[in-house]
TrEMBL record:
Lineage: Eukaryota, Metazoa, Chordata, Craniata, Vertebrata
Keywords in alphabetical order: Disulfide bond, EGF-like domain, Signal
Protein name: EGF-like domain-containing protein
Ranges for domain EGF-like: 1-30, 62-94, 96-128, 131-163
InterPro entries: Dev_Signal_Modulators, EGF
Protein species of origin: Ataeniobius toweri
Coiled coil location: none
Length: 229
């Protein structure tokens, strides 16, 4: 008889002697067995199961914990100690480095890790793209609206809005023809009279295709051709 009785499925073999199942030991089979010992103050609470202190985790309590956790790819290498990567700094790798591998363009400023703050009128990871907006007041004579509310004038124009013509305006004339059907009255000779022996002039309506001539007038800026010297 075993008193107290054997725990965790142990078998009482003789007076207060228990035969314990695998994973348990002790007089009454109350002590758990961990083949891999618990480290860093961990306690074996079940067969192969460690109860770790608050600063460690893992099967044998070998993995340190960082609270709060490391950020931005940082790795916890000891209790509350992070190793940071890619230039990040701080106790939890929370401080972003100011470093751009490729320089920001068009007046952009590097404000973080490969992160640009773009000047007004530009966008993109490197501020390489101009923002297309409508200029106010609008550009004239086919000019293109550029960043910062400025106009890029074509050849032959000038001014803030390309409103001034610097080359003569020439008139162009294009001749066009359009075919139409037009009715007309034609005469023909036919027999007539009571016996049909007389010849009479008769009239009938017919149609003919005629072409109407038209002209289309346009205007364009024509600058003199520059000669190579």
């Amino acid at each position: 008889m075993c008193s107290p009785p054997c725990a965790h499925g142990g078998t009482c073999m003789r007076w207060n002697t228990c035969l314990c199942p695998s994973g348990w030991t002790g007089a009454g089979c109350h002590t758990a067995v961990c083949e891999l010992p618990c480290a860093n103050g961990g306690r074996c609470v079940g067969p192969g199961t460690c109860q770790c202190p608050s600063d460690y985790t893992g099967l044998q309590c070998l993995l340190p914990l960082c609270t709060p956790a490391c950020q931005n790819g940082g790795r916890c290498v000891d209790v509350n100690k992070c190793t940071c990567v890619a230039g990040w700094q701080g106790a939890r790798c929370q401080i972003e480095p100011v470093h751009c591998q490729k320089p920001c363009r068009n007046g952009g400023v590097c404000v973080g890790l490969n992160r640009c703050r773009c000047a007004k009128g530009f966008t993109g990871s490197l501020c390489e793209t101009g923002v297309t907006t409508q200029c106010v007041p609008p550009c004239q004579h086919g000019a293109t609206c550029s960043p910062h509310n400025t106009c890029t004038c074509p050849e032959g124009t000038a001014g803030l809005r390309c409103e001034r013509l610097t080359c003569p305006v020439v008139t162009t004339e294009v001749s066009t023809a359009r075919a139409v059907r037009q009715a007309f009255r034609e005469s023909y000779v036919d027999r007539c009279g009571p016996l049909g022996v007389q010849l009479c002039t008769k009239y009938r309506m017919n149609q003919a295709r005629v072409y109407l001539q038209a002209y289309r007038v346009g205007y364009k800026i024509q600058c003199p051709v520059k000669k190579n010297t």
